[in-house]
Amino acid sequence: MPCHAPICNPVPDDGFVRPWPGGFRSWANLMRRRFWVTAACKGLKWLCSGLCVVDEGVAAAGNGQGGQAMRKNGDKKRVTVKADLPLYAQVQEKLRGHIARMKTGDRLSSERQLSEYFKVDRITIRRAMMDLENEGYVVRHQGRGTFIRQLAAQDRRQVTGVKATGANVIGLVVPDLELPMHAQLLKGVEEAAARQGVKVWVRNALLDPNREYELLESLGRENLAGIITAPLSGNVFAKPYVERINQLAAAGKKVVLVDQYVPGTAAAVAMVDKFKVGYIAAEHLIMLGHRRICYASTHTYDTSGDESYRGYRQALADYRVTFHPELEVNLPVEFSAQPAGDRVCQFLREHPDLCTAIATPQFSMGYGIYKALVKFGVKIGEEIALVGNNMGYNQELAHITHTDQPYEEVGRRAVGLLFPDEGAAERVQRHCLVDPVLVIGDTCGSQRNNGTTE
Whole-prediction pTM value? Predict the structure, then answer.
């Protein structure tokens, strides 16, 4: 007679760890339950899409005198938000509506309370509040809370959906406010804008090229005094992006690009001199006696990387150092830290004497290469010299010799290009280059004795 094994074997002896220890039948019942729960949730989400009822009382926990009680649940307003916005941006839009109906000095609820109400994590709330603070709607005091700033009539029309008008507002699109360099850029723009008596609308592209394109399209519909944007690498050579910049210019919009230029456009540019970034890093290593210098950049992926790469090549030519193409690392900037480190370690494994120094104009690549060399057991500064970029943003990496790109000054210069001095129409500056600085650390060692010219 055939031997029938039990359907549910609690611990199958096959070496695999299963997420359903009760066997197949238990797993099947679980899947059926999940199916119906998921279907019900999707149906509810479909019915509720597009509208979100928000209680004003939860957003406002009190006033400047120390705490008015929560408003009753019956006092509700309907706030319409786009479902395709990032979660933090949806929360931000809802809070903007509340701010427009609140008084100066009113205190918003704590991050914990807002997190529980909107059913999102506190990181999402913090991100939304950071943007609102950057836009000037709220002010945060450590240990006291977040309060509504005194909004001018112009600002209050903005948060309630009435279009702001012209000469006293500029738009700024940044790749990601969480990155220190972009926070520095914002600081410079706001400082220079305040001197000009204009306000800044800040829009965060979240490192998404498509979102940056959409934000430019949206700002182009506003009556602004000008637009400043830092093109993402994915947009620099993209035809639709080039066309968008040209369309803005054709419509009479003042547009200034920062950090890198976009081929095919006539937009003004304020940026660090990327050519010098590559040149001074290579020159420093050459002067120390290095002749086989690996250079890691975004050479073929964006204009910024190409400019710094050309500076590196020019330094080699000026000092009559032979260029070795096998020493080039060329990667897109997105998620480049580990790939750059892996590529350098591969060089060292296959050819231990291939290079004596490494330079890069990208912070992420410098970080990845440094970590990889440490893990590989290389004595940085003795066996391999390293020059990174903007390593001072991280105190643990500030000891690395690096090029410093002053993005705060770039922000100031960008605003200057939007508002040139009166009476200087004939000498309006179309482009502005800011010089980088070489910061000497401990990762290049001392003068090499074998520095002969190849």
Answer: 0.64
